[in-house]
Design brief:
Layout (H helix, E strand, L loop, with lengths): L9 H5 L8 H9 L26 H15 L7 E5 L5 H9 L4 E6 L2 H14 L4 E5 L12 E7 L11 H10 E14 L8 H13 L6 E2 H11 L1 E8 L1 H8 L1 H15 L6 H16 L6 E10 L1
Parallel strand pairs: 1-2, 1-4, 2-3, 4-5, 5-6
Antiparallel strand pairs: 5-8, 7-8
Length: 300
């Protein structure tokens, strides 16, 4: 897949910042280009290890996670698939390239990501993918109009531990028979029940990745049932994700050393990203409190 293209400079990216002081927008505008150190295709998520030696190829694991998500949607030709919080559109670019008869739409509240994603999509010559500006709590999409919706490590940015906003919106826009998939890290217990060391790491990740909170797996599933989702399938895939998470502290250290040697002054948001990337690996070891899950459900 041909993906290399221009990356906007810091000065150009500031033009896309909002004046509202939105922490999420500011974070992804400033730190967004740093994700190229994690993935040449700008996959802004963890990967899925299927085979023994997958751990040696981070990009392979990241692309396989894209496939895992898309496979869960049981797509067919002519379908429209929506990515809630698409980042730089890596998953929909992957999907559009592999499934040319399916239409993929991604939404983000970060204007720079919309512009940059457009360049990446154009560079690949994709006609069935687009990234649009939109808040996944209230999308400009008709109700009962799309066949599949997913959120890959994006719904964690929503308010509340039950993530009601995007879940409610996903249910609204899905056609009857449509599938919703959410893949993310979750708390297994309320925040106040976390051990002090776990809570400290959890707070570090949330503060530096502009997350109001992780979703609580029990609250999220309960909210999905309340909204009307059926056939809810919950799978913990922490061990499948762990091999890619192992890369996080090493990529972080390599990026930091390379930046220092090149005399590069790190931006505030880049420093935050480095702190979170380094901490998330150790937080992931707290298996009684934290887990990585794939939730799939139907609208019937």
């Amino acid at each position: 897949m041909k993906t290399g293209t221009k990356i906007y400079t810091k000065r150009e990216r500031t033009e896309f910042k909002t004046s509202t002081g939105n922490a999420i927008v500011d974070y992804y505008t400033d730190a967004g280009p740093d994700y190229e150190a994690w993935s040449k295709n700008f996959n802004m998520h963890f990967g899925f290890a299927l085979k023994r030696w997958d751990c040696l190829s981070r990009e392979k694991m990241l692309e396989r996670m894209n496939q895992v998500v898309l496979d869960s949607l049981t797509m067919k030709d002519g379908d429209t698939i929506v990515d809630m919080g698409c980042g730089l559109g890596a998953t929909i670019r992957y999907g559009a390239y592999k499934y040319p008869n399916i239409k993929f739409k991604g939404y983000t509240i970060t204007p720079w990501q919309v512009k940059q994603s457009g360049l990446l999509i154009q560079n690949m010559g994709l006609k069935n993918a687009e990234v649009l500006y939109g808040d996944y709590n209230q999308l400009a999409i008709e109700k009962n109009s799309v066949h599949g919706v997913f959120g890959l490590e994006s719904i964690c940015h929503a308010d509340g531990t039950d993530k009601e906003g995007p879940l409610k919106e996903a249910y609204r826009i899905l056609k009857v028979g449509g599938t919703f998939t959410m893949v993310d890290g979750f708390l297994k217990k309320p925040e106040h029940e976390l051990a002090p060391s776990t809570k400290k790491m959890y707070k570090t990740v949330c503060e530096n990745w502009a997350l109001p909170s992780f979703g609580n797996i029990n609250e999220v599933v309960y909210k999905m049932k309340q909204l009307g989702f059926k056939s809810i399938d919950v799978k913990e895939i922490s061990w499948k994700v762990a091999p890619s998470a192992v890369h996080a502290p090493f990529v972080t250290l390599f990026f930091l050393v390379k930046s220092v040697l090149n005399g590069k002054k790190l931006k505030k948001e880049s420093i935050k990203n480095l702190k979170a990337c380094f901490t998330i690996f150790f937080l992931g070891m707290c298996r009684r409190s934290i887990g990585y899950y794939k939730i799939t459900a139907k609208k019937v």
